From TrEMBL:
Protein name: Uncharacterized protein
Keyword Metal-binding appears in the UniProt entry: no
Keywords, alphabetical: Repeat, WD repeat
Organism listed in the record: Hericium alpestre
PROSITE patterns the record matches: WD_REPEATS_1 (PS00678), WD_REPEATS_2 (PS50082), WD_REPEATS_REGION (PS50294)
Superkingdom assignment: Eukaryota
């Protein structure tokens, strides 16, 4: 099937070219759209994760050895929070960064199996969390900013108390473990998302399964309340949408899917849209809901970023600007900025408009 957004075949009026990038707009979408490159942050190491602060003023970039913080307005680096202890050498990639919704905290998860949490106001390390037995792949905060959830290759999720009165070092106030298929290495958990009401956590694994866990239950070990085969290959990113009633997943099978979650009412979880267009693995997903607008951005190993209309399943536009895999994607809350991180060592901020 031909790709309607193939820049070599689409009409030139739907293509915009920059110095080292191009955008292709879907000719079947009757909207006026524009994209431009706003900022470029260059590093000599792979960018594993790039996330905007809740107020959109600061960009956090996870790299080997630490997290770099940039002022979005001035494009200047304002801080480097280090992962390695003084004198420590060796590779230690930050696989994930996450901001607390209140902007108070910045968290990182790394290959050294540790979760670190900094106070953003004074750039001080306030928590170092140990307990995972493998790399930490993903992080997310609950909406109240008091709990941090980490996902690891050790097949567990850990919940950490990051409230202002929490102890600085912990092993996790709760551990959610994949008990079934425990001998299957493909049950490594690669992504995690907290529901808006703080009662559930969704996780995706290398075997293509998605689990939803109830974290409102008693303390201690928890079990998934529902598990299903969401994709043919690994799920690398997921986000809740529609006030927790829906889920968007991105997979190594090159697709995104939008799910209606029916488990809370005893119904099946159903796939309502399959988003097809990427030519390689989908590694990152970000979502945005503003009024009636419901969108997702995706990062892929094919070197592109796509912005999708989650209601129609259509790609609105794609951007090609990185020289390698796009590892990370983020959207700001006012529908104007798109962030991408890549294996080429760059983090980029794109400004877009849709009328």
């Amino acid at each position: 099937m031909s790709d309607i957004l193939d820049p070599s075949t689409v009409s030139p009026e739907f293509v915009k070219e920059g110095a080292d990038w191009l955008a292709v707009f879907n000719p079947n979408v009757p909207r006026v759209m524009d994209v431009k490159l706003l900022s470029k942050f260059v590093h000599d190491k792979v960018v594993c994760s790039a996330k905007l602060s809740p107020d959109g003023r600061t960009l956090a970039v996870g790299l080997d050895g630490g997290v770099r913080l940039y002022d979005v307005a001035t494009e200047q680096r304002v801080a480097l929070v280090s992962e390695n202890a003084a004198g420590e050498t060796g590779r230690n990639y930050v696989r994930s960064v996450a901001w607390s919704p209140d902007g108070r905290l910045l968290a990182s998860g790394s290959e050294d199996k540790l979760v670190r949490v900094w106070s953003f106001a004074n750039r001080e390390l306030v928590h170092t969390f140990s307990g995972h037995q493998r790399e930490v792949y993903a992080l997310d905060f609950t909406l109240d900013s008091n709990t941090l959830i980490s996902a690891s290759g050790d097949r567990t999720l850990r919940l950490w108390d990051v409230s202002p009165s929490a102890p600085s070092e912990q092993t996790g106030k709760r551990v959610l473990a994949v008990e079934d298929d425990r001998n299957n290495p493909n049950t490594a958990i690669t992504t995690v998302a907290a529901s808006p009401d703080g009662k559930h956590v969704a996780s995706g694994a290398l075997d293509g399964t998605v689990r939803v866990w109830d974290i409102s239950a008693d303390e201690g070990k928890g079990k998934a309340v529902v598990r299903w085969q969401a994709h043919e290959q690994g799920v690398y990113s997921l986000r809740f949408v529609l006030q927790g009633k829906g889920l968007v997943t991105g997979s190594l099978d090159q697709t995104l899917k939008r799910w209606e979650l029916g488990f809370m009412s005893g119904a099946e979880n159903s796939c309502v849209k399959t988003l097809v267009g990427h030519k390689d693995c989908v590694l990152g997903v970000a979502t945005l809901q503003e009024g009636q607008v419901l969108r997702a951005a995706s990062a892929s190993r094919d070197g592109t970023i796509r912005l999708w209309d989650l209601k129609t399943g259509q790609t609105l536009f794609l951007v090609q600007g990185h020289r390698s895999t796009v590892t990370s994607v983020d959207l700001n809350s006012d529908s104007s900025l798109l962030v991408s991180g890549s294996g080429d060592g760059e983090a980029r901020i794109w400004k877009y408009s849709i009328f």
